[in-house]
Amino acid sequence: MADIVALEDVRVTLGGFQALRGVSVGFAEGKSTVIMGPSGCGKTTLLKVAAGLIPPDEGRVLFNGKDIFLLSERGLLDMRRQNGFVFQDGALWENKSLFENLSLPLQVHFPDVPAADRNRRVIRALERVGLEESASERPAALSGGEKKIASFLRALMTEPALLFMDEPTLSIDHAMTDRIHQIIRDQKGRGSTIIAVTHDAQLTSTLADRLVVMDAGQVIAAGDFDEIKRSRHARVRAILSEVLKDIASYDTDLLSLLDGKGESI
């Protein structure tokens, strides 16, 4: 299956720290990929570079075979219209209402759509998650979970083919986590390509078709979930055992990994 996004020998230094060190990895179209690794290993940087939010110091980032950072303004706008990004902290516009935050992507990418149609679409999205009564509220008046939900809705307003997610269920309560899981399952069911950084064991178990394992700014393993979880590579096994230890209750095959009985690859 063709890669919708691919990084070729990408290097990124942020604040004097080498966040990515020669990363080459592809993300298959129509598949869900989970990026995992220890804290500070470069997961979020990789996600943002893949989405075109951070330019590499060296290397190339390809979207459907074209270098993102060499696209024309029109080409870049078209790429943005096809992508959605769910930020870890929500990243909502604090000076705009919830309704205005959700309207903005439609205004930017579909300026010819009548305002009445755009407004109906935003209201339907808010009704879907029970936030229609908060439409006029600013982000400061929302709970952490509501901000996360709003970030999801905003990312999905343009019906993107590719969805990036950075710790979508971090620091929110069980009820909000269940809502977000359902939204993600719906997107996966529609055939969207999903690339996520997450430590959510249940989400990883139900979402991941593929795994990318990172350590110290490098990708040390990438491939199908069933293949990577049985890796005999010592560092990969150590990271998986730490990050995925809670998945054993969702995925019984992982018990063999955690017991040290995985198959060699």
Helical residue percent band: 25-40%
Instruction: Say what the CATH topology is.
Output: Rossmann fold
What is the number of helical segments per DSSP (H or I, 4+ residues)? 10
End-to-end separation: 22 Å
Structural class: alpha/beta
CATH architecture: 3-Layer(aba) Sandwich
- The helix/strand order is EEEHEEHEHHHEHEHEEHHH
Which regions are unreliable across 5 or more consecutive residues at pLDDT < 50?
Answer: 261-265
Can you lay out the helices and strands and say which pair or pack?
Layout: E1 3-14, E2 17-28, E3 32-36, H1 43-50, E4 58-63, E5 66-67, H2 73-82, E6 83-86, H3 98-109, H4 115-128, H5 144-156, E7 162-166, H6 174-189, E8 193-197, H7 201-207, E9 210-215, E10 218-224, H8 225-228, H9 234-243, H10 254-258
Helix pairs in contact: 3-4, 3-5, 5-6
Identify the notable features of this structure and list them briefly.
265 residues, alpha/beta, Rossmann fold, 6-stranded mixed beta sheet, 4-stranded antiparallel beta sheet, 10 helices, 10 strands
